[in-house]
Amino acid sequence: MQLTSEDNLNPLEGSLIDVVREVDGLQVMLKRVYIQDHPTEVAIATLFSTEPLASDPRNHCVQVYDILQLPEDDDSVLLVMPFLLKLDEPPFVSLEEILELIRQLLGGLRFMHQQNVAHCDVKRDNMMSDTLQLFRILPHPVTMGVNFTRTGKPKLASTRLQKSVKHYFVDFGLSQLHPTGSSRLQYPGYGGNWLSVPEFQKRKSTELCDPFAVDVYCMGDFMRTRFRTGEPHTAAFRGLEFLDNLIANWGSLLPLFVCISDPKCIVAVHARNFDDPKKRPTMDQVVERFSRIVEDLSTWKLMSRASTVEETQSERIVKN
Fold first, then answer.
1. Where would I find the H helices in 48-191?
2. Residue 230: what pLDDT?
């Protein structure tokens, strides 16, 4: 028997549920935060949702619209936030869209660091996009292949660049505020791509480490795996070879290696440079170097179609 009722659908994640706000019909997300498990999440989320930071254009932390106290439950609250989509929903159209996403996320992480906040869980799942505005007919929040009412398919009305889409960091459950003058060190083992973070390896598991340097590592690892080498079930993109020098030299910021066509070279150099957190750049340095790289690109390059390495030559000819 085929079950089609809304209640049959699995929720997005155990602590998340989408709802429609009654006062204005806006689709929003509710997140249940357990205070005992994540004691800093509400404070840090509201820090970036309160003036003067809330309206700062450099701020790319998801806004908290409201905080709801649950009846007879002092240990958890509900955060009301905008409903955002995954970074690649809908699929990228041009290289400029990808570079704009990278620019915003690099700048957003730099802004957090400038406020003495380390995200401590930088990974693909914790970066999202306000692309719901691109749809003329909205997708369903759980089953993206159908529309909101599950009576047909969603339909796009515009592209990311036409609507000036904003990209956000979410999930501050592991984030930490380190006031100026205080120690910036933490014991390893928190979030991000923790299996690959050099400071989190067993031989160093009892040593304090700099969470800001870990954020830098995880951001570089995200750029490498998502856009250059690919991930399981997600192909890398063509035409982004100019990022290789930035990623490969993330540790030194010096043009010591240029790996134009071999992602394996990027992996090897990336791993060597990233082993020592003291050799990693700050987010200020990363943003500056990225800006210089993009400034040298032609309009033709920016408007090139975002094609993946899995596309055949025949497919590229047809789609181009």
1. 95-114, 160-163
2. 83
